[in-house]
Write a structure and sequence with these properties.
5% strand, globular, 34% helix, 10 helices, 337 residues, mainly alpha
């Protein structure tokens, strides 16, 4: 993100950069980064679906007291993510204006640009990882000593093969597919990506018509990863990214599934529709040069009954819902239905 400037979005071929910094924070510290309370800071944007995975996982697992969180401004400039939401435009813990400063402390001339989610080592100010694919899996499996009592199993060992298969398909066709469609520079490229998005969603529909969650009878990492794309679908992907064969709200099964998760503690209470809409429409100036942010869609439907409990399932398994959102991390009123 941020490489070449915002006006390049939609004007050059899209290719998702691989995470360059793939160190892991683990219970045994084998990469030199042991799990420890209050040592690391998670940097996110509420606009970004990849970062939203980490925000949801952190909340469901009750890691708020052990892993602090910085929320970047949804409007990037050409240096990418910045802390202009904070007093004096600096993150109060890291003391930096741009996330790029933590990247630069780790390595100069790094490839791939500055992305979120990112975890920064507070004592040194250095970036630890921007590996969005592995980061949440480690929160679920390596940070267990710091999980809250009653935290759910988001990546249960017995279901990992199935979860991995589902997540791989969802990533290729849905999570990344909407971007391939939205940033396409040619008709054939766009049509192939858009068709892939809806083909995968239509394959998921019968699965979710007969069971409440994607894998097993509880929420898993697979649901988190699908949710972060679906919750943005009508607000930005349908219009801005031209994924407009149908709206999420026009698909009874997927709309009910996504509303069910949205109304589950730990999901909807992390979603800021204002940040989402302003980021996509005001940052991607190659697609939307006027930077006008649409008024719609109507958000009131997110709170409508979904009736998914009729399918059974136990959202948190043998665990419990997370408690109230910590003070200072609440989504502002303009970002909620």
């Amino acid at each position: 993100m941020g490489v070449g400037g915002n006006d390049t979005y939609g004007r050059k071929a899209f290719k998702r950069s691989k995470s360059h910094f793939t160190d892991r924070i683990t219970a045994d510290g084998r990469d030199g980064w042991p799990v420890a309370a209050d040592r690391y800071r998670l940097v996110v944007s509420r606009a970004c679906p990849w970062a939203s995975r980490a925000v949801i996982s952190r909340r469901l697992l009750g890691l708020e007291g052990a892993l602090s969180m910085a929320i970047a401004d949804p409007i990037q400039d050409d240096r990418s993510w910045r802390f202009t939401l904070d007093p004096d435009g600096r993150d109060p813990v890291l003391g930096i204006r741009y996330l790029a400063e933590a990247y630069d402390k780790r390595e100069t001339d790094y490839p791939g640009g500055v992305s979120v989610p990112a975890i920064v080592d507070v004592p040194s100010g250095k970036l630890v990882t921007n590996d969005y694919q592995q980061l949440t899996l480690d929160l679920a499996t390596e940070w267990t000593a710091l999980h809250r009592e009653g935290a759910p199993e988001l990546y249960p060992r017995a279901l990992r093969d199935e979860i991995d298969t589902v997540m791989a398909d969802v990533y290729e066709d849905v999570n990344n597919g909407v971007y391939r469609a939205g940033f396409a520079t040619g008709q054939e490229e766009y049509e192939a990506a858009c068709a892939g998005v809806f083909r995968r969603l239509e394959l998921l529909e019968p699965r979710l018509a007969r069971q409440r969650y994607l894998v097993g009878d509880t929420i898993t990492e697979a649901d988190i990863r699908l949710f972060t794309t679906l919750v943005r679908f009508d607000a930005v992907y349908h219009g801005h990214f031209k994924c407009n064969r149908w709206k999420l709200a026009e698909n009874p099964v997927l709309w009910a599934y996504t509303r069910d998760l949205y109304q589950t503690p730990g999901f909807g209470d992390t979603v800021d529709f204002d940040h989402i809409k302003r980021h996509y429409h005001q940052v991607h100036t190659g697609i939307n040069p006027t930077r006008i942010v649409p008024l719609g869609p109507d958000l009131s439907g997110w709170l409508a009954p979904h009736h998914r409990e009729e399918l059974g399932g136990r959202p948190f398994g043998d665990g419990t819902p997370p408690g109230p959102v910590p003070a200072g991390e609440e989504v502002p009123e303009q970002g909620r239905p």
